[in-house]
Write a structure and sequence with these properties.
alpha/beta; 10 strands; 341 residues
Length: 341
């Protein structure tokens, strides 16, 4: 039996790393304020936003909600230059988290529906709108990469190491693949200490400072009912940030396919949200005939609350109707599951 680990952002969070998109957005706001405070101008402006505090210096904020409160109470004027950026900041403030990639796709759908309403492949200004959205998305990607370079990985998590050793030592496991969805290399803290016959490591969404494996930042739900409609527009700008096309830049996806075709395997989910932005990839893993089990290492929110039930709901969206019954047999029940740390 082979073993496939899905390593997501919750894995980094369990190590105390501030890798939520809301952490990144707060850093970007505070970085902009620093630049403004050291300038002689009354206005801060970059490619994403304009800040005007009427000459008053600003202090850094400890949360996006405190930034929004300051906007409401002060003479500070904040103007996003793109609808996408404004939408993302509002979502992050309301929910204290945001999935930038999913919000990007929702904006694409809004533009598509405008085209559909006009019953044409174009409406007035459509080309400029989609290009502006993609420019904004690329700018956010550049800022995110800069932010991730500021994060320092300290040490491993003893409980996570225990989870690894327990799984890898008690079962007759042949090959192990760590499929990493993060841009950070936190998983490498464990590879030397784990006792494995053979293991492979795939950074499916790319790595920092690795030109041969560039960062993939985009959306990956080709199963969505609107995706085929968007594709049929014959407007390539709509597909610019779809993950499927960026996977073709490296052999990573083919190497994953080779692994899941190589024999029976079980899946352990460590910190991956299993959201729709990776739907096609996760569908290919969960619904494959060689998949023999799915174990969720859940997030323990409090003494009496965890996210196991929510995670099973997310996983179910990756199974087609004819595989739903199989899904219920594949997922290891809560009573036999453990928290990530």
């Amino acid at each position: 039996m082979n073993k496939l680990y899905l390593i997501g952002n919750g894995f980094d969070l369990a190590h105390g790393l501030k890798t939520r998109y809301s952490d990144f957005l707060l850093w970007y706001i505070n970085k902009s304020i620093k630049v403004y405070n050291y300038s002689n101008s009354n206005i801060y402006e970059d490619d994403l936003m304009i800040l005007d505090s009427n000459g008053y210096k600003m202090t850094e904020f400890d949360s996006l909600s405190s930034f929004k409160e300051y906007l409401n109470k002060s003479r500070l004027t904040f103007q996003p230059k793109n609808f996408l950026f404004g939408r993302i900041l509002n979502k992050a403030d309301e929910l204290n988290w945001v999935d930038i990639e999913y919000e990007y796709y929702l904006v694409l759908l809004t533009l598509y529906r405008k085209i559909e309403k006009h019953n044409s492949t174009k409406f007035d200004g459509s080309d400029k709108l989609i290009k502006d959205v993609n420019i904004c998305f690329d700018l956010l990607k550049d800022q995110l990469i800069e932010y991730l370079h500021t994060i320092k990985i300290q040490s491993n998590n003893q409980e996570i190491e225990s989870r690894f050793n327990s799984e890898l030592n008690k079962n007759a496991i042949d090959k192990v693949l760590f499929l990493v969805f993060n841009y950070t290399n936190t998983i490498e803290l464990y590879l030397k200490s784990l006792k494995m016959k053979s293991h492979k490591l795939i950074y499916i969404h790319g790595q920092l400072n690795e030109k041969r494996n560039p960062i993939i930042f985009g959306y990956g739900d080709e199963m969505d009912e609107y995706y085929k409609k968007i594709e049929s527009l014959n407007l390539n700008e709509f597909l610019k940030n779809m993950k499927a096309f960026h996977y073709l830049k490296t052999p990573n996806y083919k190497n994953l396919t080779r692994f899941i075709n190589d024999g029976d395997y079980t899946v352990s989910i460590m910190g991956h949200s299993c959201g729709l932005s990776d739907r096609v990839l996760l569908n290919s893993i969960f619904c494959h005939q060689n998949c023999r089990g799915i174990r969720i290492f859940y997030y323990q929110k409090s003494e009496n609350e965890n996210d196991f039930f929510e995670k099973t709901q997310e996983i179910s969206r990756h199974f087609t109707d004819d595989h739903k019954n199989r899904m219920r047999n594949l997922i290891v029940p809560l009573t036999a599951s453990l928290p990530l740390s």
